[in-house]
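Researcher: Good morning. I'm working through a list of sequences from a screen, and I'd like to move beyond sequence-only analysis. For each chain I'm collecting a predicted structure so we can compare shapes side by side. This is the next one on the list. No need for commentary yet; just the structure.
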Amino acid sequence: MTPAIEIAREAGIAFTLHEYEGVDPSESDYAVAVAAALGIEPGRLFKTLLASVDGKLQVFVIPADSRLDLRSVGKRAQMADRAEAERATGYVAGGISPLGQRRRLPTTVDETALEHETILVSAGRRGLQLELDPSELVRLTDASVARIAK
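Model: Good morning. Structure tokens for this chain:
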């Protein structure tokens, strides 16, 4: 069990776990490949990204088939490097969940998440996704909701 699953269980929310295999972590568009492996549209699978905004790490949750619009999140925004993201979250890249991170970081969820009844996010390890109501994700991460994907 991962910290992300423990958070969801402790909160008493409804969720479903989805396992997948056969996706190479070095795949150029890993999140889209995961969506394909699960047989869902990429717009319902959300990836967790970390960026440094004005020198401080923040978490951004966006659709698998989108890119983070760095200009929309801050003037001095840049993607965090892989090692920095792994250290801050306690998860391995490709399995970074917005839930149960080592350090609680400011989180923003792309507004398109709320267009879906449920979305999928990493459950905290490669090969496992957590399906939940996007409003529960926002609540559990104390996230802001904004247009951050392009």
